[in-house]
Amino acid sequence: MKEKIISKASELFLKLGFKSVTMDDIAGEMCISKKTIYKYFCNKEVLIEESTSMVHRQVHEIIDTIVEKNYNSIHENFEIREMFRDMFKNNIDTSPIYQLKKHYPEIYQNVLSHEIDQCTQYFRANIEKGIRDGLYREDLNIDIYVKFYYTLIFHINETTVSEKEAQQIELEALEYHTRAMATQKGILELEKQLKKITA
């Protein structure tokens, strides 16, 4: 039952926002009593912590699956962006990350510290792969570019209220990041990926 509650809560939090969803809403959606939820979670904050941990795990499992498909580094980044777009497609209003930072800053900081660690590893591996494949320049300072990119992405999510707008800016940031690193071969691959989005 605990896992079912976390799963339903996560779905509602991502769709409607962390602030607006109440324990009553979750109980109503699941056709259970609020008392049942409180049997497993002493308050909403604990449920939010468990839910964000579950979403975090799911996101990184999907990223690992995409990485295992062994696309080239630029294609890989666009596939991951598509995954995030699908994940938040039902949320066209407030960005969940923005809401989390605003209303539950301690939980947000906790999520952020885990995310930065994992994103740093992923971004580094992606850049190294791109250099090996001749899509990114060999003279890049990898540490600096990793830091640039996660600072850019987290800043967008922290400060953009609308999820739809955040996704649009993230696409621009991905193009900006890729162009800054790309060789001529990389630029051709980038143009190919951008065309697929507008097609």
From TrEMBL:
Which positions fall inside the HTH tetR-type domain?
Answer: 1-59
Q: Which Pfam families match?
A: TetR_N (PF00440)
Domain of life according to the entry = Bacteria
Extract the DNA-binding region annotation as residue ranges.
22-41
Q: Where is the signal peptide?
A: none
GO molecular-function term, one example from the UniProt record: DNA binding
Q: Which PROSITE patterns match?
A: HTH_TETR_2
Q: Does the keyword DNA-binding apply?
A: yes
Tell me which InterPro entries the record gives: Homeodomain-like_sf (IPR009057), HTH-type_Tx_Regulator (IPR050624), HTH_TetR (IPR001647)
User: Which keywords does UniProt give here?
Assistant: DNA-binding
Q: What is this protein called?
A: TetR family transcriptional regulator
Lineage of this protein's species? Bacteria, Pseudomonadati, Bacteroidota, Flavobacteriia, Flavobacteriales
